[in-house]
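Bug report

Summary: structure tokens for Ferredoxin--NADP reductase differ between web form and batch submission.
Environment: batch mode, default settings.
Steps: 1) Submit the sequence below via batch. 2) Compare with the web form result.

Sequence submitted:
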Amino acid sequence: SQPAVETDALIIGAGPAGLFQAFQLGLQGIAAQLVDALPHAGGQCYQLYGHKPIYDIPGIPVCSGLELVRRLEQQIAPMQVPRHLGQQVQSVEPMADGRWQIGTTAGTWFQARTVFIAAGVGAFVPKALKVPGAELLDPEQLLYHPQHLDGAAGREVLVYGGDEEAVTAAIGCAVEGGMRARKTYLMHRRDAFSAEPGQLAQLQQLRESGAVEVITGQITEVRQQDGRLQAVQWMDGEGNEHPLPLELLLVYLGISPRLGPLTDWGLALERKQLLVDPATLATSAPGIYAIGDIVSYPGKKRLILCAFHEATMAAFAAAEYLQGSKPLLEYTTTSARLHAILGVE
Ligand code: FAD
């Protein structure tokens, strides 16, 4: 296995809170790394309301969720924070030397002097296909919201779902110049798909040419032999079942947040929120801080603005914890040390 990644600070969650935490740690001269279950940064802003406007970020009268993420990314660029995406943190355990050992679903291990939990409403993970046989499949033949469609080339593929991502995948598998599956099926419980009008028109063309076959129904069972996908059993609107031979199953049932293993990390919780001291954002464990939507303290508001404040307080507290003395308060306007960190003159 890979050697553990050593870092002064590990930030769990790359939503707005985690991103700004990286910035504030950077200003304190503390090297941090980011982990997120999603394949991209942005948390709820990206995943739940990317194209909707936000009106209450100080100094930005209006911006979309995606625009805020883009601006935060730009702001933390000078910090060059390594990212470990598409993996969920599973375990956080104390080490004999006072550091923390953190393990992820991708098998990455970290050894961190401080940990910042910015887990929001939980790790965004794909909804699993819960039918008999699905759990026995070779993971290469059942992919959830895959980032690329390389595996589809030359195979009989079923895209399962009705949202924009599912439609995009079906088009990507079937279109000339795309991945060119041998056969592309798109199955959804209704013959209605939510996607941009242009995509729906393209899907319609592909249906008419026979490049995509739309099936209205639901998967009831996955048939496999020694982990190899053979077929799915599906049910139509009248309740009749049919087999569909297949080589690859791409599942798009949505991505939703799950609190997951966080409740097992031995930290004080109140109604599934981490209890913190609002002066330092310290949790009940030394060196572990928590910020953003995941925390609870008297008067806590689940707003991005409040998460930014918490990130700042936590960075100051962690600097004191790591160096044993209170850090100076310096202004980004005038401090030569901060200018050097930010790469500005
Ligand atoms: P999140 O944004 O939830 O990010 C947490 C990240 O942590 C996620 O990416 C998740 O995948 C990751 N994660 C969690 N656990 C793990 C783990 N174990 N391993 C790896 N990764 C993990 N707030 C405002 O201030 N103004 C608004 O106008 C506003 N509008 C909103 C509109 C909507 C529709 C919604 C849903 C929320 C809105 N909010 C708004 C609230 C705001 O989005 C949240 O307060 C903010 O996203 C919290 O940021 P966060 O970084 O704490 O958590």
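Above is the batch result. After comparison, the two runs are identical; trailing whitespace caused the diff. The domain at 5-125+256-342 is CATH 3.50.50.60 (FAD/NAD(P)-binding domain). The chain is about 25% helix and 30% strand.
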